[in-house]
Amino acid sequence: MHKIVKSGAALSTLAMALSAPAWAQDAIAPVEATTSDNEIIVTAQRREEKLKDVPLTVAAFNSAELERNGTTATRDLAMLTPGITIQNTGAALQPTIRGVGTTIVAGGAESPVALYVDGVYIASQNFAVFDLLNIDSIQVLKGPQGTLFGRNATGGAILVNTKKPSDTFTGKIMASYGRFDEVRGGAYLSGPIAPGIAFSIAGYYRDDNGFTKDALRGTDLSTYQEYNVRGKLLIEPGEATSITLSGDYGRVEDSTGVSIRPIGSGPRAASTVNSPIPTDPYKLALTFDPFAHSWGYGGSAEIQHDFDGIVAKSLTAYRNTDHRSFTDQDRVVAAVNRVNVTINENVFTQEFTLSSSEPGPFQWLAGTYYFDQKDFNPTLSNGTLVTEARLKAKAGAAFAEGTYEVMPQLKFTAGIRYSKEKRTISSRRLATPTMAFNKAVFDAWTPRFSLMYEVDPQSNIYFTYSKGFKSGLYNSTTFNVPAIKPEKIDAYEFGVKHSSNAITANMSIFYYDYQQLQLQTRSATGLAMILNAADATIYGLDADLTYRITPAFRVRFAGAYTNAKYGSFVNAPFFAPANAPAGGNIQFTGDATDNPLVRTPKFTGNVGVNYDRELANGDKLGFSATYYYNSGFAWTVDNRSRQSEYSLVNAEVSYTLQDSLKLSVWGRNLTNTRYGQGVSVTAFADAIAYARPVSYGVTGTYTF
Description:
It is a multi-pass membrane protein. By secondary structure, the protein is mostly beta strands. The protein contains three helices and 44 strands. It starts with a helix and ends with a strand.
């Protein structure tokens, strides 16, 4: 704890330094957020505020920043946001923020990093990977968000906001071609239909042949195909009332995370006597094509009315998601163990809120929330039904939070949420045709308290305590077992924020007491099993700095240090190579006490450069580059399977004609770094899915 105290003193010193006259030059004045992308507006506290006025760590990117860095999807966020890692397991997205994440992919399983799109909670991990052409902003909220965003936000939240329908006709058309025959295309159109009624519609398509080959059959693996469409209708019958109707449909066919190859030195590994698997890391030897397909649709209705200072809002949403995967678990060419998993999920949510809308010393919000989820999750091994589970979850919550200006420079925020959830499971398996039924009820209080002090109009310091709760869960691939316990987390954070015309700087230190972690491991046959791990202690530091050297030239630096270790964990699931002709792994329990948390590098950081120059004829020349560093991390709790340190470089050069037609040449992973996007360890073998190697291409965008 003494390290945290020392770091807190350093942050206080930094706050004074940033507010000193050396930084506060006479030419620098506060910038209105509506006129410059220097000041980013965020909604981390469920109301629009300047980033520097929010007492928690937020990495926020508006549409201009995202476009400069070639970011169009949630999977790209790790390049821009230190302290977060993202594992892409097929069509599932699993972010880990400051050591808090999940390894569980099963029916009813939700991420502890909550994903929201236009205010709607996306419960399924299997439809969290998507590209959108009309993204307005993405916000990454670090730390528990249990008060305002509720259950399953112990690690943080990712808020994706798409553009609102406009009252003038605007649009964009995009086409791109890249290595591996990657073809991308999309279009966005928005405009008025009648007075007080406007629409928007966006569509996206991507297809590529993959970067992995089957050495036996010559077929393409690690292929990717996606298409989606999203529409909005905005109705404003009066100045105080707005109705937004949204609908979307999408499909993702992604085999990159399931095209895995054995690693290590056993008989199932590459280039050994009993295996024809080639030594080329981008070649496999299979007798089938593994796949992970997800598709789904959803709709929402948001109704908002301002009653002279009090805004009432209702947000109703429904989503249906289907997921199918077919994977190799035995790691040999012969069809020994192929697992087919199906997850069908239906989710209905309803939220009502009341909030203050007039400026004043006291800002508040209160609301209720309802969540209803149904999952159907059959699992087959070699075409034979192993387990079949039907899971239901119903949850309700009431919450309130207020911020009071105690004195002109000091604000105090207090909030509380009560959540209660009931989960049920009915399951059967081939060996026991009788159905088993179990139910469990979980509840929790999740408060938040913050103090923020304004050092000067451009700098703030703050302290925040928050609590997070992730409900218990049933294991859908085992039979008649009790639910695992909920996760809980107590978080303490102290930070400093500064924003001016030239400089944006943020730094925070944090300490987490993380309890009853939920963990996934594998059975001897490769089926997923979930359990509660030990408690954990996490502490670290986040920092970022953006320096606008000129209006056309900016550089940014960001870094994160995270120390995350398990507490007493003497019965952890371990795997070790078997000393046997058949190879494989021996599964046993071991002592993982003080081992690092999975998918949590100690150091991550990035350096970015953006240059946009307007030429004499009105055209624009642009250049952007990002360097990313990851110090490496453990894939498994036994710390045996590890990702070594690696670096990535992305870059883009663009030319824009009269603010309309933009032509870009881009490169991703320009150093051709080989690293994993996912690892699977079972009794059969260790296996890895490599991330995409160097890729490059051209993109044309027409905006009107």
